[in-house]
User: Which sequence fits this backbone?
């Protein structure tokens, strides 16, 4: 890692706004996130004028454990915020990075997370241009929390919003359901559950969504990533915001057998499990098959499928046609059996 | 507060991404922060095209205690991020709000902070347009941490940066030094120190800086708000980034007697105390007196004064001419005697 022995652990000095803080930021972050917008370390980053509407989003990440199969808190923090921009049809331009660190955190863990953030930002092509680091005394936080905010540009003519839902639209899910949520749960030692086939689906989706939006102008009405609350909650939110009913076919929903099995074992409905690499896409019915084909060209969309349709009916209602031929209403998550999932 | 008895305290459900979370956000935040950009609660807020360069900044707030004379964590979170935009000469357009809450936090405390955020955003004329709330289990965080990020627009022709420092420039401080830092320290019960005359200086400075920039086109070379690390650290950073030397006259620095007294009592040099409502302004010497006069027209700039000048000399060096006729070098803060000051 190339850091001094005196930097084995995070100390309160590292959050002081003084020399130690600057040194930490330079060694841990600037070196890895190297880009001309970040380098001046001024109070704000300055980006060139953008030709379109501005998308702006924020998310904090408090996942426990910090590392899990398929990802870690840093990867989530980059991909999650990139995806929040992508869900409005925006091209992500830049991210901010706000770290809250617990005094005593091993510097090696921080460096691993910083590596992960840098790699994810590089892969997504979205630079981290501004940041902030705070350190709180031992016991005042659990290891590390990360906030990423993001800015993006929405091209003229792109209008992605649940308000555009229409009766007859097709509902597409771009990836199998529940992988992230079940993986983080399995990774928590206290569950005594080992799931070697389980892996978070965390991925940045902006290139895939941009390709679909560009190829089918106007046909993509709404996008939503089913993170906390899972597919059920995201579908309910879409139906409520769009003022229409959704009809979902359980049998069409991609769900990997190990996720299904682990969900059954733990008594958790995969419909409520968080996803970090999939999106729900509501598109014009006539284009649905072609959109699915386009999604499947992308690694993140390999399991994309039409899972249902929009109906005029009871606004906000989501009806599931179950695999065994029944019908049940999908409701949004009410409690939280799964704290600190992202 | 108009909230149900079942909402006396924050629960893990409130961070679930499900119904309880949505209810919390609606009652506590949307109702107070009411604005058309926030209302849709989609993955990103969408702002109209902006005519200029984009300024983007982030800051997390972890201050302890949450409430102190003159302010609270919510007020700091709004003003601090507005100021980070103002320090680049940007007009602040919008804020994001990322809350990390500890399970069990009294809802009344959260409501007070939400009130404060709403009032500060209203006063600053900068809406909160997007947000996120996470809840972590009891003991995994200390009550409440807030991240605010901000976007702003920099008008054509405005170029504020320490790289513009020139030998001969005047260095102005817009307000008395150390009020925020000493107040938060005094508010910490464990210090057994009561300071009734002490009050945080937290204030949004964007209107004042914009007025100066507009009235003296091109004359404002650099701005910096001396938050964590205090005036000493901010001056050193300016000198280092500008590659020039600064000469500061101690006697010219506005410092309120109770702050001086409390600093002496606690053995803390006011040069290292955090400020949340002042800025250092480096301007062309010929305009310095007029800039000070303009600053004094604003309530936040009532004590503005020229405190020194830029010299060609040793890049990064800051020399203080002390009140008793000596000279000493000002250094950036190295340790952190004051954790969780903002």
Assistant:
């Amino acid at each position: 890692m190339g850091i001094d022995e005196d930097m084995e652990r995070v100390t309160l000095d590292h959050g002081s706004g003084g020399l130690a803080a600057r040194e930490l930021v330079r060694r841990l972050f600037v070196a890895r996130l190297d880009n001309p917008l970040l380098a001046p370390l001024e109070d704000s980053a300055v980006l060139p004028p953008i030709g379109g509407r501005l998308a702006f989003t924020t998310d904090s990440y408090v996942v426990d454990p910090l590392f899990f199969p398929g990802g870690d808190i840093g990867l989530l923090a980059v991909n999650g915020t990139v995806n929040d921009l992508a869900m409005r049809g925006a091209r992500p331009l830049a991210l901010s990075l706000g770290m809250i660190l617990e005094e005593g955190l091993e510097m090696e863990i921080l460096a691993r997370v910083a590596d992960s953030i840098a790699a994810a930002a590089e892969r997504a092509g979205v630079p981290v241009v501004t940041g902030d680091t705070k350190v709180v005394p031992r016991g005042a936080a659990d290891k590390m929390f990360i906030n990423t905010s993001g800015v993006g540009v929405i091209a003229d003519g792109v209008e992605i919003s649940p308000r555009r839902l229409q009766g007859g639209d097709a509902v597409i899910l771009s990836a199998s359901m529940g992988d992230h949520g079940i993986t983080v749960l399995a990774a928590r030692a206290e569950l005594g559950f080992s799931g070697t086939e389980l892996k978070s689906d965390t991925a940045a989706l902006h290139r895939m969504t941009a390709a679909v939006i560009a190829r089918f102008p106007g046909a993509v009405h709404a996008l939503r990533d089913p993170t906390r609350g899972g597919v059920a909650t995201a579908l309910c939110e879409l139906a409520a915001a769009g003022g229409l009913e959704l009809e979902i076919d359980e049998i069409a929903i991609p769900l990997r057998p190990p996720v299904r099995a682990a969900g059954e074992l733990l008594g958790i409905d995969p419909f409520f499990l968080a996803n970090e690499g999939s999106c729900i896409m509501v598109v014009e019915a006539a284009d649905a098959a072609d959109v699915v084909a386009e999604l499947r060209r992308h690694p993140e969309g390999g399991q994309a499928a039409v899972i249902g349709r929009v109906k005029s009916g009871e606004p906000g209602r989501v009806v599931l046609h179950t695999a065994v031929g029944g019908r049940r209403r999908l409701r949004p998550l009410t409690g939280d059996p799964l704290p600190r999932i992202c």
Chain A has two domains: 5-154, 162-330.
